[in-house]
Amino acid sequence: MIKPKLLAVSAIALLAVAMSGCASTTPSSTEGAGADRTIADCTVTMIPKSTDNPYFAAVHTGFIQASEELGGKLEYVGPAAGEVTAQIQRIQSAGQQKSCAIGIAALDATAVAPSLDAAAKTGTKIVAWDGDVAQGSRGIFVNMATAQALGESQFEILADAMDDTGEWAIISSQSTADSKNLWIDAMNEMAKDPKYSGMELVKTTFGDDDSKKSYDLAVSLIRAYPELKGIMAPTPVALEAAVKAVNDLGVQDQIVVTGLGNPGNDAELLTSGQVPAYVLWSPVDLGYLTYYATAAYIEGKITGAEGETFDAGRLGEKTIGANGEIIMGDPVVYTKDNVEAAIEKDFEATN
After folding, report:
1. pLDDT at 224 over 60
2. For residue 299, how far is the Cα from the chain centroid?
3. Per-residue pLDDT tens for 89-129?
4. Which stretches of the chain are assigned E, i.e. beta strand?
5. Which CATH number is associated with domain 33-144+283-329?
6. Which residues belong to CATH 3.40.50.2300 in the chain?
7. Is there a contact between 241 and 215 (Cβ–Cβ < 8 Å)?
8. I need a surface site. Which of 116, 246, 258, 316 has the fewest CB within 10 A?
9. Spacing of C-alpha 198 from chain mean position
10. 147-280 CATH
């Protein structure tokens, strides 16, 4: 017969072993069970800001190209419109389905963080792309270009078209869109240069990437500021809405509109002269790079540490910078002279 004291000791020992086993198989948000997996055996969930946006359709094309080269099951799921709650629901679903990785273009960096953290605790790798998430809630962030370069390149177009003088306003997307807020910070910093002392930012507004709201904001700005000479729209939705507003109100010769454009939808704005130029990058390459980075992260080839390198297929070797950020390259300024070539390369297959 086993004595009661020995029975108690044995039970405690067994409990300790069980707890030790649980601890060894429960990953942290930085380690994750995905470290010893291969991309070919994985499901990868990519969550855009909206599936109705042609820009994200082009990014999706890049995901598909890379997944065909590397393998893996690609799940491309997102809200039709830009809804944070819908993004959170898709994160939760991907976590429950044990996706090896979730890649997200966050609408709200803070709001999505808790659900990302919960998914990470089950071993899912977290990747941010296009828009970052709260620090500590992802391993790597694939950025199109530096925030400074994107903000400055857009501001330079506007300032040049305004001859460095006059009132200007901003119609951005969501007020919680950290990436665009950083671009705006870069614009405001650049505007402090004495060269631009004749320019005055009169108001910054947020259209939530909604066409009607952005249009109404543009109309309100035009009516509130009769001397307005420029509208900065660092999102294609706001760019299109602002152009429509200045045309509808007959002030297209008075007010210049520029910012972030989408050649897939907005080529005519350039070829017709309604917009002098706008900024973007290759969305197909962004999707392609993000998938390659995600595969390297899943397979443990990178951890997100500064200085690490990985193979990015046709884009060559890429290096991880500070805070796990991977920069794709420099922003591209699109004009009437290069927009057709851009459509052929990056948008034709998605139209």
Report:
1. yes
2. 23
3. 999 999 999 999 999 999 999 999 999 999 999 999 999 99
4. 43-47, 73-76, 101-104, 125-129, 140-143, 165-172, 198-206, 228-233, 256-259, 278-280, 309-311, 317-319, 325-327, 332-334
5. 3.40.50.2300
6. 33-144+283-329, 147-280
7. yes
8. 316
9. 33
10. 3.40.50.2300
